[in-house]
Prior knowledge:
Blueprint: H1 44-51, H2 67-73, E1 76-82, E2 87-90, H3 92-98, H4 102-107, H5 112-117, H6 124-137, E3 140-148, E4 154-165, E5 171-180, H7 182-214, H8 218-226, E6 237-244, E7 247-254, H9 258-262, H10 274-281, E8 285-287, H11 290-296, H12 301-305, E9 311-319, E10 322-331, H13 339-376, E11 387-394, E12 405-411, E13 417-424, H14 429-447, H15 452-466, E14 472-480, E15 485-491, E16 497-499, E17 505-507, E18 512-513, E19 527-530, E20 536-540, H16 552-563, H17 577-586, E21 599-606, E22 616-622, H18 628-643, H19 650-666, E23 672-681, E24 687-696, H20 716-723, E25 726-731, E26 736-744
Parallel strand pairs: 15-18
Antiparallel strand pairs: 1-2, 1-5, 3-4, 4-5, 6-7, 6-10, 8-9, 9-10, 11-21, 12-13, 13-14, 14-15, 15-19, 16-17, 16-20, 20-21, 22-23, 23-24, 24-26, 25-26
Helix pairs in contact: 7-13, 8-13, 13-14, 14-15, 18-19, 19-20
Amino acid sequence: MPTEPESPGSALPPGQSTAGSGRARPPAQAVRRHALRTAPGLAAGRLAPMLSGGLPVPSGDSTPDWLEPAMAANGIGSFDWDIRRDVLEGDQRACTIMGLDAAEKSRFDRTSASFLALLHPEDSPVVRRRVERAVAELGQCGAYYRTVGPNGAMRAVRFRGRVLADAFGRASRMVGFVWDATVELHKRDRADRMALLREERSRFIKEAARALSEAVTVRDVARVFTELPLPGLPPDGLVLASFEAGRVQMLGASGYRPDELAVWDRSVLPAAHPAAEALRNRAPVFIASRDEYRERYAEVWEPTSRTGRSSWAFLPLVASGRAIGVCVVSFDDDRELDADERTLLSTLGGLVAQSLARARLHDAEHELAAGLQRVMLPRTVPSVPGVSTAVRYLAAGSGLQIGGDWYDVVPLPGGHVGLVIGDVQGHDVHAAGIMGQLRIALRAYAAEGHPPAAVMARASRFLADLDTDHFATCTYAEVNVDYGVVYAVRAGHLDPLVRRADGTASVIPVAGGLPLGIAPDEEYRVTRFSLDPGETVLLCTDGLVEARGMDLDDGIARLTEALSGPLAGHAAQARDPLEGLADRIASQAADDSEREDDIALLLLRWDGPEGGLAAQQLRRRIGQADLARISEVRAELRDALRRWGVAELVDTAELLASELVTNAIRHTDRDAMFTARLYREPTDGGRARLRVEVEDESDLWPTRRTPGEQASSGRGLMLVEALADGWGVEPRGSGKRMWFELTATPAA
């Protein structure tokens, strides 16, 4: 049929030509109808030249005797169009083929325009162009076109004509034949539909193969299968089931109620079931009707009859020569699938089988890796009074999703707590095994009560003795729960971050050493810093701050921003805001598919000591031989007073504290204990009072004296007396306690 989407043309002027012609599939719509005036017959001289291009006929003016019976027997009509006068004539059969009754014939004016008006609007311009080209070239033409009969039925007609020239070589008339092509057109339409269906099926297989290749887990495969739009045969029900040890496990279904499939889930598949036959023979089983199912599989018909289905296709899923499952495609009506449909379903079953086998292997590997990782990491984080903790572990987005990152929280003697974060080189099962051994060793060293530097040194020697050619980075921090003091040691790892009470966050520089296992005799330095109640320390591995397209500095800046800001409480769920903070930080990590390294995250918030001690306190021990510690204590005191909001006391407090500490170190042979506490007086407008105490074990009391002009000592107590709001000396069993107090004026 013609295909060009053009409007119907006007009358056919003689001698005009238009290039191009085509064919189209006709839609079922009404067309305008006119009458066709017929002539009793066509002159023999008009038919013979036309037939000379096709059937062999005798030359001359007489019509062969066999022509009329042959045309009548085959339902062929003839027409003659006088091009110059634009007069169209046809015989009775041509009129019948066009489906015109007597009334319409009388209204037909015999022009080409009236003839074109009879045609379907989509076919008229195509016929017009082909005829014009034949007239211009003195050639032949032909086409299919559609008409609508008196009862509204669509009819297809085919014509074939030839242009005859006059003595001067000009187009004079066109003669030809017409015949009913409805059956022929239906065959062509069916062929076109089948070609389109084959194209759709080919496209479906490509899309199904792509979607199934992207399915990673068994759940993904089941989702893709149950959502596939099968072309040409949309099913009413789909079931995907795996087969293990003779039992069926339902993986996914659509078009079924849960109770209809529950009878088969986790059950032994009967030998008489069509799915069992498909698995046994490694070949699909097709059932066209309910009667056929009842006759062939009577033993299992009763539970199947309740589903309301009438035809089925059971497709075995075979991978590497082993039956691993079955697909069921069912329909509500009786359906005898043809060869193409059965081939399509069999191909689909093969694709699903390969995808399901790959997904099951992936799930098994993932479960193995996840189980191994769970064994290596702490099952629970111990609860320690005075602190709150939150941990997160995110596996890498590729590979076995197992690696050497770990965290640990270790209760220590005296009620303190140790924090561990580390990363063993590598991202495989070997790295995970080393991580498990190292975690246990480091935990044992810490639980024995060794100081942080000794814990790290012993862990380094332990890893070196394993002789694995692996190293590990690690940060270990011991938290004094009574006073909020953190003693941190770092072995090639990231510095910790601290979130202060005002919501700001910053990196805490910690003296670093070589990674564990590189230098067994490495000595590690300890860095001390303080926490106020409500402040949080963060330890993490580099997977949180390093990713493809993001360097370390940018990652730490982003992590600092995530750690800062207000905390969202979840009172309705009674959830600690620390857990929400952990979720917020973890969400900053790269997407699973992009992340190349594991992430271990550990948060600890110091809630303050039990027993009602001062809310803001700094407590440090100063060794007798550690004179440099005095400078460190002064720096920590300055930082603490600024955090506590009494920066105006920094200079005076630092000077007087130095005097008391120096006095205790110089005049005794024991360590000194330095304590600074800030008290708020709610009854006095919120006035702050700072009390600094220095304890030692000497019974020698300080004596206030007036030093000479050239004396190099003796002015300490004079400064304390002059600058402090109050001071004194108190005995404490063995030794004494010297103290002074400073008062800060509350802000307006």
